[in-house]
Amino acid sequence: MIRITLMAAVLLLGGCGTALKPLDYKAQRAYVPMSVTMPPSESRFDQQKQREVIQLLRDTGAFSFLDGGFSKTGYSLLLDQSGGKGAGVLPAVLGALTLLTVPVPYTYERQLHGSVFKDGQLLKTYAYKRGGWTATTWYIPMIEPRSESEMLGDLMRDLDRDRLIPYQ
Prior knowledge:
By secondary structure, the chain is α/β, with parallel strands linked by helices. The protein contains 4 helices and 5 strands, in the order αβαββαββα. It has a single domain (21-162), classed as Rossmann fold, CATH 3.40.50. Helices cover 34% and strands 24% of the residues.
């Protein structure tokens, strides 16, 4: 009985992941090796999200090598996803009280800032914002991760278009 309860709990909680959707961008050529940095994370959730973002960037094929340290080529990309707002306390509590069966609508806003540097000098900053509304329930798909993936895809297309970073 304990084993069944534990498995059910793991399955229920496993469905609460916030994995980002794959980007709709694939690079034709890879950039020179560069470093990608993000602001210090405040929680384990933030650390996991940063790892997902780095993995999505690797999967585009645009980066031959991503490193959090110093780049020999001098190019670096600073990504900042801070700012914006989420559900807040009231929708989260109401959703929990109803076991996520009654949709509790809320608005959200997500931001992404990307800055390209060469030898410590800022070359260009990109800013993106997405917002909308959704609901805290298990049967309505979360659109916030999709918005974040769309902004990353837009950043990659803009980097490709501006050609600030040389290719290999």
